Amino acid sequence: MAATPAETAIRRVREESNRRIAAHDADGAVALMQEGVLVIPSGGGPLAGRAAVRAVLAASFADPGFRTYERLPDRIEVAPDGATAAESGRWRGLWKADSGHPTLKGGYTARWRLDGGRWTILSEIFEPDPA
User: Fold this and answer.
1) Containing H/E element for 65?
2) Which domains does the chain have, with CATH numbers?
3) What are the pLDDT digits (tens) for 3-40?
């Protein structure tokens, strides 16, 4: 079955989010989120709002061994009203081989909202794979 225009648009925004994180662009990454975004990382408590997410990204980017976080969507379901969507897939955190930091990975879910003709991230929950 062919992707709907909304699914295609969400995948493009997800790709842009991944690119901005790989470029260590915290401001650009959070610009793709709702102001009141809620993020629950795999290893910590909830982050409420863009400023909190930006601070955590900036701290990761300050680590010279850090490379990127990426989300790889498996499924996107747009609500019947066309104004919200759910995404699920796999995520991973990558560091340079000589950093001594293991690759982190797991599953994630995200909620999206169509706001002014633009899809933005409303929330993300990251689950770690079992050790």
Assistant:
1) none
2) 5-128 (3.10.450.50)
3) 899 999 999 999 999 999 999 999 999 999 999 999 99
